[in-house]
Amino acid sequence: MDFLTELDVTYGTGGGRDLKCDVFRPEGAPPAEGFPAVILLHGGGWRRGNRATMHPRARRLAERGILAVAAEYRLTDEARWPAHLHDVKACLRWLRASAGDLGVAPDQIALVGFSAGAHLALMASATPGAPEFAGDGGHEGASEVVNAVVAFFPPVRIRPGAGRDNGAEPYSSGDSLGEGITLEEAHAASPIERVVPGFPPTLLLHGTADEVVDARSSQQMYEAITAAGSTAELRLYAGQRHEFVKIEEMQDLAMADVALFIRRVLVEPARFDLSQADLFGLPVGS
Q1: Comparing C-alpha atoms, which of 17, 29, 12 is closest to residue 95?
Q2: Do the beta carbons of residue 154 and residue 218 sit within 8 Å?
Q3: How far is CA 275 from the centre of its chain?
């Protein structure tokens, strides 16, 4: 499937300036209910990175019929936490408020994040309507509900000071979110501490040789979500390091998995529900 690209779209404001995103839209008329959509959030330790690094991944999703938005968010050198999350929420509200114009299904919106972006995706998923994380970036009346979330090698526990690994509890540095992060702020910024029943369907992907964010972070997030009675899936890639999706073949595989996950949990869940199927007969949907 071909796609259309629109660059430098303003989705909101933050810190007195416009915030931008790039939209990759499947070509042709959307289905009756609209395209499923994702917002892609780059990594870089909350201090580095830019939305252009998401373009190859956005293209792969648009080619599979998903409208993909590569969004910027303010980095720590520009604004202290939780400005990063304010911007993600502003983009989410903009996308839902613009669903009609973009041909998007407003109840089929997912977040897809990588490393620090995965942390933001999980935090946004865990805090719909939380005033302390909403910010004032625009479209305040639109819903912040995340319908599904995909997190690649996500930090899920934040602590003040330098990053450290305390036995079975892998931490990420609170310093990367801004100077003087308190223990209370770090706890509030840890998505694993915010998992409750009703957490959106979640796909976690991690390399077992990750030298930046220990794979136990995704394993523990998976356990927390499933313990709360919500849907979670975990992919562990043997021997792969942090940002393994920079390898083209791994990126192809991972983005195909993301697209299928979106289809399974948001677009056609009944087609993939085998609970009533005769597993020794014809498969569902045949």
Answers
A1: 12
A2: yes
A3: 28
Residue ranges making up the domain that contains 172:
3-272
Q: Over the stretch 166-210, which tens digit does the pLDDT of each residue have?
A: 556 677 877 889 888 899 999 999 999 999 999 999 999 999 999
Q: What confidence category does residue 162 fall into, taking pLDDT thresholds of 50, 70 and 90?
A: low
| 70: alpha, beta or left? (left if phi > 0; alpha if psi -120 to 50) | beta
- 278 in a structural domain: no
| Domain presence at residue 279 | no
* CA–CA gap between residue 22 and residue 8 (Å, rounded): 6
What residues have CB less than 8 Å from 219, skipping those under 6 apart? 206, 234, 236
d(CA 150, CA 201): 9
Q: Name, in order, each residue with C-beta under 8 angstroms of 265's C-beta and a sequence gap of 6 or more.
A: 148, 201, 231
Q: How many domains does the chain have?
A: 1
Residue 76 lies in a domain: yes
pLDDT digits (tens, 9 = 90+) for 29-40: 999 999 999 999
| CATH classification of the domain holding 22 | 3.40.50.1820
Residue 148 tokens read as 């599904």
Token couple for 107: 């109840």
50-64, 110-124, 177-191 — which is least confidently predicted? 177-191
Whether residue 286 is contained in a domain is answered as no
